[in-house]
Structures are given as C-alpha cells and as structure tokens.
Amino acid sequence: MSETPFPEPKTLKERKSIIASAAEGTRTVQNEEIDGKKYHWEETPLLTHIRNREQLTTSDKIFGTFDATFRDVIPEEYSDIKQYIESVLAPKKGQAIGIELRGTASRLFGEFSPGFFQRTLGVNLTDYRDRIDPLLEAQDVSRNHHVLVGNIVSDETKMKVQEEFLHGQKADIIFERMIAGHSNLPKEPDFLGKQIGFWYEHLSENGVMFLTPPTALWDFIPGWLDIINTQYTDQIEAQYSDDTTEVLRIRKLPGAPEHLPLIDNRNLLREKKSQVLTRRNNTIDAKK
Ligand SMILES: C[S@@+](CC[C@H](N)C(=O)[O-])C[C@H]1O[C@@H](n2cnc3c(N)ncnc32)[C@H](O)[C@@H]1O
After folding, report:
1. First CA to last CA across the chain, in angstroms?
2. Residue 3's pLDDT is what?
3. Is the minimum distance from the CB of 192 to ligand 1 under 6 angstroms?
4. Tell me, what DSSP letter sits at residue 113?
5. 189 lines ligand 1 (CB under 6 A)
6. Closest atom of ligand 1 to CA, residue 44
C-alpha cells in the first residue's frame, strides 16, 4: 500500500494511532439528546418529516437526516432528497449503484424505494451495525447492501471499492456526510480536493455526489464554484450552501470532463495568501 500524504500528523505511527482511536470512538458513540430530540451520530436516516425547508432547524441540519443536511443544495422543484435522487436517476432504476463514504449506510439506502438500487456500499472505519439494530445486517443482505471496513483515504480501501464492489462500473450516487468527523484527515487543500476528484472519476454520467467538505477546503470553494459555473456550465452542476453547515452537490452531466477541474496547487497558495492579506487588512481597518 502506498503512502498517502498526511501533513498533520506527520508520521505513519501517529497517523495509524489517530485512525485507530477514531475507529474505537465510532464503536462507542451513543444517542444524544439535543433540543429535546434524539440524534445518533452514526447510521443517520435518509428522510425527515419536515417538508418546508424554512422549518428545518440548525440541529436538524447538523444532527438530523441526510435530507435535512442536504436540503439547501437540492433544486427547489424537488420536495426532498429521495425524490430528487430517484427522479434524476430514474433511467437507472433497478440498476443504480450507490456508495456512502464514511458511513455504514444501512438506514440511508434502506429508505429508498425497494429495488431502486441494484447494489449499495458503505465504507467506514468500523462496522457498528450490530450495536444499532441487530436486524440491520440481515436486512442489508436481502437488499444487496455491503459494508467495507477501511480508511477511505488509503489506496488499499479505494482499490477494494474498485475491485470488490464497482467491478469496472461507476456509482450513480455518492454520499459523504461527515459533519464534525473530518478531524482524522490531513488539513491539506490539494490532497482533499484530489480525494473528491477520485470519487468524481468513479461517478457515472448523470451521477450525483452529496458532500460535506472538510473545513480546510471552505475558503477555496467559492473560487472553485466560479470556475465550474463559468467554464463548465453545461457539463457539471455544482450547488453549494454555507447557510448552516457547508454542503455541496456535484452532478456530472453528459459531456462532463473525465477529471474534476480543481484549483491547482500554485493558485491555491496564491488564493490563500490573498485571503490572509484581506483578513489582515480587515483587522487593521477594524482597529483604526
Ligand atoms: C459523524 S459519523 C457519520 C456517519 C454517517 N456518515 C452518518 O451521516 O450517519 C463519521 C463516520 O466516519 C467514519 N470515518 C471517519 N474517518 C474515516 C476514514 N478515514 N475512513 C472511513 N471512515 C471514516 C467514522 O468511523 C464514523 O462512523
């Protein structure tokens, strides 16, 4: 297995120990009560009963369902995330392939219309389904849902997804809903952008990705959106919201470039410098 860049922490030993404690932490996670509602950090359901997006609270968006988290990047004409996905992927019904990165995804895929997906996968540091509901695993077998245990930024896990699950095909939907769970990732914008690029390459034509981008990417997203929305208008659909939590939807349209256009390293540095300067000037102005 080749090394993935991991500037923070630097050594392989430190990195392994962070991943091991993240895996352990995942297994011990409990229900939490926030604003009088029960939430669980793992195995988040797909849908919320709240239809009107204005009524979704901050807690709903952060701790609630996939629908609540991503409602701000679903085109207005769709009532919820399930309706959106099953409409845009309608020609793939019965053949669709779905993946969740950093989640076991039993509840998530279990809430789509039966038979909509041909097969689905959750990739996670641990498989904790037995702790959540002892029936989940058996239901998953009947739905052709699989769980792969692994670190998603490692080459080994990516290769397993390609060889053992995709078998040369591409995914029609890819979810990554991390909320506060990005802490074991490198805080390196170039590396993080390339991770998204890798999964974009494994997305089918008309396929969709829903992402909660890591904090280290937030400053660069507006500049990247400008590039996509001006130079790739009819090829890539990108919708972003930073209203409550940062969420992104990317749809690969027919004729889209094979590789996701990313801000290159030199421009990332240039942009970072100009952001630092702007912030510094704003602070100086505020003090005057
Ligand atoms: C906040 S939970 C979210 C789980 C699920 N996506 C959801 O929305 O319900 C974060 C999950 O990401 C997993 N995770 C964190 N880092 C990971 C990594 N590098 N590779 C695979 N899974 C990872 C953890 O094990 C944990 O289950």
Report:
1. 54
2. 41
3. no
4. P
5. no
6. 9
Indicate if ligand 1 lies below 6 Å from the C-beta of 151.
yes
| pLDDT of the residue at 5 | 47
Residue 279 resides in a domain: yes
- Helix, strand, coil shares of the chain, percent, nearest 5, are 45, 20, 40
Q: Is 80 a member of any domain?
A: no
Sequential DSSP letters for 114-148: TTSEEEEEEEESS--HHHH-TTHHHHHHHHTEEEE
- Ligand 1 probe mutation, 17, 21, 42, most atoms within 8 A of CB: 42
Residue 184 CB–ligand 1 contact under 6 Å: yes
pTM recorded for the entire structure: 0.88
pLDDT score recorded for residue 122:
98
205 by DSSP, 3-state: which? strand
With respect to residue 242, please indicate whether it lies within any of the assigned structural domains: yes
- pLDDT tens figures, 107-141: 999 999 999 999 999 999 999 888 878 888 999 99
Q: Which CATH number covers residue 223?
A: 3.40.50.150
> Is position 86 within any domain?
no
What distance in Å separates the CA atoms of residue 185 and residue 199, rounded to the nearest whole number?
16
SS3 category, 190: helix
Asked if residue 126 has its Cβ within 6 Å of ligand 1, the reply is yes
Instruction: Tell me the per-residue pLDDT of 141-164, one tens digit each, with 9 for 90 and over.
Output: 999 999 999 999 899 999 999 999
160: three-class secondary structure by DSSP: helix
More confident residue, 116 or 40: 116
Ligand 1, atom 6: closest residue by C-alpha: 103
Structure confidence at residue 34 (pLDDT): 65
Give the per-residue pLDDT at 276: 65
